[in-house]
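Saturday, quiet lab. Running sequence design on the structure tokens for the scaffold JK sent over.
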């Protein structure tokens, strides 16, 4: 089973979070609420109501299969009943927010929002901090950057959604194709390491008159920002300076955007409109050299009956030549986290459940589940025979390496607004409505306004904390200033 419905960066949810954050500030002035943006360590609506009853868990629709073995193991261990409440993936953060504001009388004890929504949920007072994650000192947990924000732990990662690449291995290994490529470029045909190499292979394979296309990379407003994020880092830039001045309109960033737009010429015809499932269908249906995606993509491409089964090679998302070395840029751009809402009726039991679900056999069984969309996120998952059967050993080798070296998403307050404006203006540039440089200049100005509205001093502190947690050796070769 795959993520359902198509994942769209929770755009509507992010807008709702921004509105509710502003409302909370008004509540503070009126004296209605006990917490606000600057007081995230206080309960939002006084002490939570404690009452006996089942633990209620809000889950993204489609991941019930992942939770089933966890729930059963937790019941056997503690005797506690657990009830799952599912909601569409786009609505998890919104429902969590509205419940925390008292919009519904039914309490939620545990919720699984997307990792990148956690900063906005924290700033709106919707979550309560968790005990310091055991993963902080646990080398088996491969990615914990999204768990912490402003010095506290707010969620436990449960899904290894690192972005990576899919290639037609049968094309890469075809002797005639390899000779033509080498004759043209005087270099061997291989899995690309940089975006320049990838764009060259997209063009090489693109022959629409023959029913063959270079790529199926996403080009919708909700997804296009993710590719730009890796292309930007591949140019050797952090997204902002140490004082939060955007670098999105720097020459290298503009070049990244121009190359992204140029590469759109070598994509299958539906790329500009296809969401997640449409993208998967196109890649299975058409002759397309490469695609981009997650573990769920691999499940779709490698499943029984898929024409792509056994015909794919994998690689990390490309990067650039940094400090004289071609370096791929792995990127963690999604994921789900176990969190405990401020209004949880049973917060201690909820925190115990969240921790239990992300450790040991319970976590492995969740990833093994034939349905759902929790991808491997701990080192022991990669040695598990059932997991290896679902994903394939070749895919898991690339996935594990990418998890260990992934750059984070923009885990700052206002993240939804930052990425929303970036995606919308990149889409306009990709459609030819704006020159890339002009589009990114407008994005940079909008980011400045967002930073001011969130409080520059606070945003600087948050950014420097996040920047310090970028993986080495990448952190040491990225620049925080214009050339």
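Result came back. Writing it out in full:
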């Amino acid at each position: 089973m795959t993520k359902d419905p198509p994942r769209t960066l929770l755009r509507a949810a992010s807008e709702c979070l921004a509105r509710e954050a502003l409302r909370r500030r008004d509540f503070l002035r009126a004296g209605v609420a006990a917490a606000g943006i600057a007081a995230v360590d206080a309960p939002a609506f006084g002490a939570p109501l404690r009452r006996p009853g089942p633990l209620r868990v809000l889950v993204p629709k489609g991941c019930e299969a992942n939770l089933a073995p966890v729930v059963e193991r937790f019941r056997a261990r503690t005797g506690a009943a657990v009830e799952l409440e599912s909601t569409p993936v786009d609505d998890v953060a919104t429902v969590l927010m509205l419940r925390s504001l008292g919009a519904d009388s039914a309490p939620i004890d545990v919720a699984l929002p997307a990792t990148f929504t956690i900063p906005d949920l924290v700033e709106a007072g919707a979550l309560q901090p968790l005990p310091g994650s055991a993963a902080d000192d646990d080398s088996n947990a491969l990615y914990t950057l999204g768990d912490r924000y402003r010095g506290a732990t707010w969620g436990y990662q449960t899904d290894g959604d690192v972005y990576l690449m899919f290639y037609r291995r049968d094309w890469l290994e075809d002797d005639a194709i390899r000779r033509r490529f080498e004759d043209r470029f005087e270099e061997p045909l291989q899995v690309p390491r940089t975006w320049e190499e990838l764009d060259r292979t997209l063009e090489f394979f693109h022959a629409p008159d023959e029913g063959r296309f270079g790529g199926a990379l996403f080009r919708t407003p909700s997804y296009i920002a993710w590719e730009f994020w890796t292309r930007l880092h591949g140019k050797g830039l952090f997204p902002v300076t140490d004082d939060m001045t955007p670098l999105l309109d720097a020459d290298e960033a503009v070049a990244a955007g121009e190359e992204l737009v140029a590469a759109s010429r070598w994509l299958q015809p539906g790329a500009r409109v296809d969401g997640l499932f449409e993208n998967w269908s196109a890649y299975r249906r058409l002759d397309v050299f490469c695609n981009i995606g997650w573990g769920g993509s691999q499940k779709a491409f490698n499943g029984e009956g898929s024409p792509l089964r056994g015909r794919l090679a994998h690689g990390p998302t490309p990067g650039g030549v940094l400090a004289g070395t071609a370096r791929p840029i792995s990127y963690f751009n999604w994921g789900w986290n176990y969190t405990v809402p401020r209004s949880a009726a049973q917060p201690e039991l909820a925190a115990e459940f969240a921790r239990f679900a992300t450790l040991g056999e319970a976590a492995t069984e969740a990833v093994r589940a034939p349905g759902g969309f929790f991808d491997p996120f701990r080192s022991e998952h990669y040695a598990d025979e059932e997991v290896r059967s679902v994903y394939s050993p070749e895919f898991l080798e690339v996935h594990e390496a990418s998890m260990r070296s992934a750059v984070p998403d923009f885990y700052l307050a206002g993240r939804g607004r930052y990425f929303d404006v970036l995606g919308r203006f990149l889409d306009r540039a990709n459609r030819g409505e704006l020159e890339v440089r002009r589009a990114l200049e407008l994005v940079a100005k909008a980011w400045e306004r967002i930073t001011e509205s969130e409080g520059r001093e606070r945003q600087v502190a948050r950014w420097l904390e996040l920047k310090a947690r970028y993986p080495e050796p990448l952190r040491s070769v990225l620049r925080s200033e214009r050339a």
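Notes for JK: Confidence is low (pLDDT under 50) at residues 1-51. The chain is about 45% helix and 10% strand. Ask whether to fix the surface positions before the next round.
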